[in-house]
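Lab channel / #folding
Pinned by the channel admin:
"Please post every new chain as: sequence first, then the structure tokens as a reply. Keep commentary short and put observations after the output so the thread stays searchable."

First post following the new format, from NK:
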Amino acid sequence: MLIVDKALERGRGALNEYESKCLVAGYGVPVAAERLCADPDAAAQAAAELGFPVALKACSHELRHKKELGLVILNLGDEAAVRAAFGQLTEKALGMELDGILVQAMASGERELLLGISHAPGFGPCVTLGIGGIFAEVLRDVSIRMAPVAPADAFDMMDTLRGAALLGALRGLAPVDRKALAAAIRGLGACALENPAISEIDINPIIIRSDGSLCAVDALVIMGGAS
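Reply from TO:
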């Protein structure tokens, strides 16, 4: 059964972060390597296998803003730190319906993007590409197209951003993998069309690594269908 169908069966209004990234990864969005763990031993083992440093995050369909609640711990360098962080997160999340603790390989890059899905009344799902990160709401540098997104339109979305130069070669950084980004844009549009129960998808940030490859480190899928 599909991830979205399972969530709807349980009466959930959103997917948790792990489920959200599993869903969008199936539509061509490159995501960070991660494991969902139920106990400190599993988390320590996952971290060792993923490679240090790692981040730990509380994972729940109830969570929309983990960082603001102190439910994300970054740059953990060894198994002891992972075990301690696991305990801290579970204690802070008391009373919440936790699905586990997410152990995620840290990703680094100096440029960040966002991708999203929203519904425009009377038009259906739209795909948004923008400059991401903590300043996304301030900069509001986005390009929007209706789904499905044609190949030429996916590339045009990149070129019409005010900060389009950030996607090119810059101070020793490789240009973004435009084919991979176009595939993610088009895949997200297909995801929205094939899953009408989804009302919103927010993937922010997508880190552009120094070699130009992409890595989505956070994602949220909200149910409800078109408004």
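NK: The first strand starts at residue 34 and ends at 37.
TO: also worth noting, The radius of gyration is 18 Å.
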